[in-house]
UniProtKB/TrEMBL annotation:
UniProt xrefs under Pfam families: HGD-D
Family assignment from sequence similarity: Belongs to the FldB/FldC dehydratase alpha/beta subunit family.
PANTHER family xrefs: 2-HYDROXYACYL-COA DEHYDRATASE, 2-HYDROXYGLUTARYL-COA DEHYDRATASE, D-COMPONENT-RELATED
GO molecular function (one): hydro-lyase activity
InterPro entries: FldB/FldC_alpha/beta (IPR010327)
Cofactors (names): [4Fe-4S] cluster
Protein known as: 2-hydroxyglutaryl-CoA dehydratase, D-component
Length: 331
């Protein structure tokens, strides 16, 4: 039986697959478990403070509850709390491996980090490249799913989110993931398009812990046709010559200016009317909202999430008011 290795966010999954491991994105297990609040409570009983991000508490307890024996924590380019989280896991007898996206975004820096990561799992570049090429067809299908979302208007914002965010680990089984994606695309292509007079939204920031953001938007005459970070997870923006260039083009772990450049490009291409910027309570990335609102030239609604579950009354009211304003502007 293949060893399951937990991951705290997107890592070079090709390395794990080349090493014969099964990647498991702890975020996806946590948020789809149906018992996310109980998982958080377990972390707080073990000593995690209330004013720590719910994702961190969820990651911790998910690994413990589901018996994950080894975890890769991304200590640079993601959450500033991950380094401490790894130490807590180690105290619980869980083996950890750290990986960091380089602070300096150059091919040489990315190559150095990926080569070190390959060495930790005793694989060579040729083996990793073979896996990368075998995954290219899945990544192309995810690009087609994204096109069906924004160009043909046949895929919902939530469906787009779910498939793309799942590409961080391909649900632990790329072959099954590919077959299920084929079936979904076949069905989606036969659908009637969504109405053209909808408000077209972009969703930027980390994937939401709130369950119903997408359905709330749709019930108020809007649809998300661009999921920023989820799309980055797919590594499907381009055809890449090698794995180094692929992870060099992965915008999420690097500077905000580069991210905003890609967001502005997608605003124009997808003809977006407005942006939802999602931030997580107690996360340092919330500070980025200042720069985002000053730079983007269209309405931005910032939604802050805390605990998993449905949106609270205040968030619903703010979203409805924002979309009412957007509809007035569109008309």
């Amino acid at each position: 039986m293949k060893e399951k290795i937990g991951i705290t966010t997107t890592v070079p999954v090709e390395v794990l697959l080349a090493a014969g491991k099964t990647p498991v994105d702890l975020n996806n297990i946590f948020v789809t478990s149906g018992k996310a609040k109980e998982i958080i409570e377990r972390a707080e009983l073990d000593g995690f403070p209330r004013n720590i991000c719910a994702w961190i508490k969820g990651l911790y307890s998910t690994a413990v509850v589901y018996g994950i024996d080894r975890i890769i924590g991304v200590t640079e380019g993601d959450c500033s709390n991950t380094k401490s989280l790894l130490e807590v896991w180690q105290s619980k007898g869980i083996s950890t491996v750290d990986f960091g996206f380089p602070g300096k975004r150059t091919r040489e820096a990315v190559k150095s980090e990926l080569d070190s990561f390959m060495e930790k799992f005793s694989v060579i570049l040729e083996e990793v490249e073979s896996v990368r090429k075998s995954l290219s067809s899945i990544r192309s299908k995810l690009s087609e799913l994204d096109r069906l979302t924004w160009e043909e208007n046949k895929v919902s914002g939530f469906e787009n989110h779910l498939w793309q965010v799942s590409s961080s680990d391909f649900n632990g089984d790329p072959e099954s993931f590919s077959k299920e994606l084929d079936e979904f695309l076949e069905e989606a292509k036969c659908r009637e398009p969504y109405p053209k007079n909808e408000i077209r939204l972009g969703y930027i920031g980390v994937p939401p812990i709130i369950d119903d953001i997408y359905s709330l938007a749709e019930s108020n005459g809007a649809r998300v046709v661009y999921n920023e970070v989820q799309r980055e997870f797919t590594m499907a923006k381009s055809e890449y010559p090698d794995i180094y260039e692929m992870y060099l083009d992965f915008n999420y772990p690097y500077d905000l200016d580069t991210r905003l450049g890609e967001i502005e490009k997608q605003i124009e291409e997808r003809k977006l009317d407005g942006i939802i910027h999602y931030t997580q309570s107690f996360c340092h990335r919330g500070i980025e909202d200042i720069v985002i609102k000053s730079r983007l030239k269209l309405p931005v609604l910032t939604i802050e999430g805390d605990l998993p579950g449905m949106a609270d009354a205040r968030t619903k009211l703010r979203l409805e008011s924002f979309l009412d304003m957007m509809m007035d502007l569109k008309e």
